[in-house]
Fold:
Amino acid sequence: MKQEKLIALTVFFMAIMCNSINAHDFEVDNIYYSVVSKTEHTCAVVNNAGRDKSYSVSSITIPEKVTYDNTKYTVTQIGPAAFKNCIKLESVDLPQSITKMYDCCFQGCILLSSFTVPDKVENLPTSCFSGCISLESITINSVKTISSYCFKECSSLKKISIPACVSKIIDYDIFCGCTSLKEIVFEDGNETLTLGIDSQHSCGIFGDCPVDSVYIGRNLTYSYNTINYDFGPFIAQDKKNKTIRSAYISDYVTILPDILFENCEALEKIYGMKNTTTIGKWAFSGTAFKEFIIGNEVTDIGNGILSCCPRLEKAIIGNGIQDLNGVISGSNKIKNLYIGKGLKSFGKNCVCGGYGGTSPNTTQSPLSNANVFLFSDEVSSNYYYDVNNGMYYFGGLPRDIKVLYVVNPERYQTLFGKDYNLKPMLVFNESSLEYTGKTPELTFKNYVEGFDAAIDNSTTPKDVGSYNTNVEVELSTEGWNTTIEVPCSYTITKAPLSAIVNNVQRFYGEDNPEFACTYIGFKNGETEEVFTSKPVLTTSATTESNAGTYPIYCTGAEAKNYNITCEAGTLTINKAPQTILWEQEFNNHSIGDEIELTAKSSASLPIRYKSSDNSSVIITTKGEKQYAYILKSGTTVLTAYQKGDINHEEADEINKVISVETNAINSISSNDNNRTYYKANGVKANEYTKGIVVIKDNNRTKVIVKE
Structure:
């Protein structure tokens, strides 16, 4: 009753003020002015108090300065009801010197279609544009306060942009009767905007407007009935809003207040909300969302923010939420509920609010047909139900959930018992993999409906071994993502690696060459640097070993990630080459000469000789030496050769030529002893010597060969 009386008195005094007759001090160009300050030389525009109280022109331009009584006055104010009911006024041009506008100053200007408030005006007064039914656009660059009834009955106003400078919109019918207002923009800003309510009609400040979309660019605050939660800023008298379909929450907004969009029955899309950390009680209760995402930045949500949403099928509660309280109470069509990894416990009324019945076996929760995906692996408790006066009041996480998908089923089986149909969110397919030199490409089955899954390979061990680890998995859907650590057990087995000893060759008598292997099976560009024990390559062959083939064995090779098999190679010892060095020259030899042959083998093997004509030169052996004996004149080829042995190749033959000219015995005579000796070349000998000897004995001559 007191509130109604206060409202009535306010309206009464406002009417008196707006209809009061303003006295004017002077007139300039048919505009009436009243002196505000003689010392500061300021004045105000006032109405035509002495005549019909209104201006009857279509366009008015107010100058910044006017002259009165030989003094220039600056126009700083638009007086109370100055242009009230100027029904012909279509446009007004005000100077930037205006600092204040008074109540009802443009009330009832039914043809005024646009208006720009001077930059120095900080308050739009009561009923300032009330009844301006043609007003379609207004620019309020520097205004801080918008007062009651300011835009009442502005039925052509389709959009209102409230700049960041506005800090308060005062109560009472500010937008009442704005039947075309479909778009509201609260421009971006850091200062909180305080909204009034229409306490006369018990509805929100925009409750009488057919608003279709809202842009919220800063934090809002307002008063409301904290007991009944009767109405937010967009709620009509029936405590509903049937027109708002979309809303954008800008990056400047950190707090969404209680009941902001409560019972906005057509609201089905909300955008932005990237930096919002707090969502108040019942903020989206009764909306038309089919799906809703509470972002990871949100750390505080009020009770029932998505309650009684008749179309809600999918809801995501972000990672920042640790405590829940009746989030989806009464939203009975939910099919998939995703709870972020920040949740610590399920308390009373935690998810679905209180619901009850006379029997714990028959009461059905709002999640009875839903899949719940619990990304948190830190929940430590779950409240189930209480009994009071024969009624069972349930809360926490209902046990009749269709399927409860969790990160670690074993953990929650222990925590929750066997009351839930528990299934894993993700299951890895592999239990054993072969080492690849890379992070193993684990494959998996993803059971999180509507989400894509990807593994962060950087957390997965790659070396040989058995692992019980947690693999980081990123799960993402449109508008939201999270990571979980999924238990995974697998074994990486050693990869096969073949070490094949390379075949090599050398000649007899040389040192063994350096042995090496060819490796088949190294992974990811690895080399023998990965060996923990390098292979040892050995053979029985030495420098003294005969020519032939000898195995090269590989032993001792070890590597952490490889099973190494060795394949022996071969060392082939080839016969060594040899050459014959024969520096003798056969010049000036005669029949009967005995010449020692001196050719040598580079392998120190014995040299053999042969003559191309044994009737001229024969090869003889005396002891270990070989000689050439010249029997007669002529040209003969002597050949030195070496056939080789088990360790040496046959040498190339070397040829030498012996040419001996004819040297006959001209006469034979005997000496005193009646016996004379001659060599084969006709030289007389003193005695009987080896070789071919011609003997003259008395009257007989004979040739003998003396050994």
Summary: The two ends are 169 Å apart (CA to CA). The domain at 1-157 is CATH 3.80.10.10 (Leucine-rich repeat, LRR (right-handed beta-alpha superhelix)). Residues 178 and 674 are 175 Å apart (CA to CA). The helical segments are 2-19, 409-416.
